[in-house]
């Protein structure tokens, strides 16, 4: 092929002077996602067509052309990979951007190899997604323009040479000894070599050392036609004397090579002489980078760069196999920072992330070469210690970790003190299964927390039972709402002067299908930790509202219902709105709804809680301080919060016979009366307690002396009895 200068070719632009809106097809089986993407794309004035699933997508593609397609993978009717194949067969020039929640590396690589132009994970950053779409549409426009140009350039040899030198691929020819006889201009931008640097040079000059053996079979390709080499992946070296930007590793490029043998066309069919080979190398470096990025993200924690749970399991599996061969034990450690949630809540997640980075760096300093440190999520880390001599090795490293992490961490002018609880198990002594070892180390870690934190605890067989029971309760809790297993009981609050029922405290019970009736102490702590307390609390509020509405409909006297509020409920951003929804749905009188909150809970986020409770109070809803006297008992919050009721903790009431407790209760009642607050004494069980409280002028009492918590039917009957008693009293007075 000649290397003579190429004369300029006149080309006429086919781009319209009037901008045309790009038409996008958005495919997803989630209506909310479709709506969100449509709104986002509207900000760029794209013309958007939506398809609620793969089948609708095929119909839309058959009816009209699209400039790009945003495609979900996991759809019930027809998955995204099948849609990709359809697009490749019918609309090969339509780029597809996969927007999927499937975070596995195989899904991403399969989509890219199936023809996807790009792969974006859910949840995505809106600006990043728009940038990816803009880049894809720009590439498509340029490709269409290039295709039009290429059609015009196929008419002459001169145009053909122009096409070769303008190709985005590296095109070359070799002689029969493997020396370059032609290279196109692309080689300079791809590898940093000028054409004259390579002409006459052996192809091995540009082959990466690791691929020399494979290159001999590809670059020296003698086969032609369908049997020739196609899309063989190989690494080419860049010119070491030229600094190239954005190289995959700074010195090489990944290409897919297609090569064919060249023969003397003038010879007869049987005497044709091999004269060299012709090849096209397509740059796939960016695709390889994308695959490596997806692979890295699938196996690493993106904040700390440490291995994640998946990679930790892989390492543990390899080390277990090696331990069996070497007859040496290994240890798995589970580490959890103590009270990390308090740091996140008080200083913010940005400070929390910086703290986790500092913790990761300190942990690395404590470990040996060959040990594996991973972040499993949140503030939980894991360590793999292979080739141990004895358990004392684990104890030594555990003590070192506890000591190093006990030193203060300085993050953005904050001096933070942390501690860590560590659980450990040793294989094969404690087992040789991957997931069992990780779970046992976690159980031992929870045991360390329960025994005072900041300590190392080895796994023992007896630890499994309570942990398994807790996990079973958590699993059952998540199903209990759907199965309607919860029920509200009501304990009356009685006026000490008249004996009338002034209100009820709504108390949650769980009718467990196997365990029977469970009290709150048996499941509320688990619900708090598992995060299911918020939907349970919403159910309690709705159920109490429905009961009040039913009593009002039956013409029963208006009584107050008190509902306990948990920490997670109060911290929820939706807390105020959820309470107001129940009030509106059941048309409740706010003065008859009272929220019971403990002193310690109020003080956890003083300012934020004051705002939330102030909004509720402005709507007429009452606030009661539960277990008063066991927490701060401070006039500060009594004056800052819109409090209506003080509930004296039953621990004081049950020991009224002690002079010290009697003085404390008397002071509490006097303080409440002085501040015009309603005072309710809990846990009243004897006549003597009732009499003393009445003498102290306590407004209301609650306890088993009057009634245990009763069902809604019994509470209704109690109210009806009071109505009949009131009617008889009116008749006697009239006579």
Structure commentary:
With 735 residues, the protein is of the alpha/beta class. The chain has 4 domains: 23-153, Response regulator (Rossmann fold), CATH 3.40.50; 157-292, PAS domain (Beta-Lactamase); 300-459, Reverse transcriptase/Diguanylate cyclase domain (Alpha-Beta Plaits, 2-Layer Sandwich); 473-726, TIM Barrel. Helices cover 45% and strands 21% of the residues. The protein is built from 27 helices and 26 strands. Strands 18-19-21-22-23-24-25-26 form an 8-stranded mixed barrel, surrounded by 4 helices. Strand 14 (409-411) and strand 15 (414-416) form a beta hairpin. Helix 2 (54-63) runs parallel beside helix 3 (80-90). The chain is elongated, with a radius of gyration of 37 Å.
Distance between the termini: 127 Å
Structure annotation, total helices: 27
Task: Determine the fraction of residues in helical runs and give it as a percent range.
Answer: 40-55%
CATH evolutionary superfamily of the largest domain: EAL domain
pLDDT average, as an integer?
84
Strand content: 15-25%
Radius of gyration: 37 Å
Low-confidence stretches: 1-18, 244-249
Categorize the overall geometry: elongated
How is the biggest beta sheet arranged? 8 strands, mixed, barrel
**Number of β-strand runs:** 26
Helix/strand-derived category reads alpha/beta
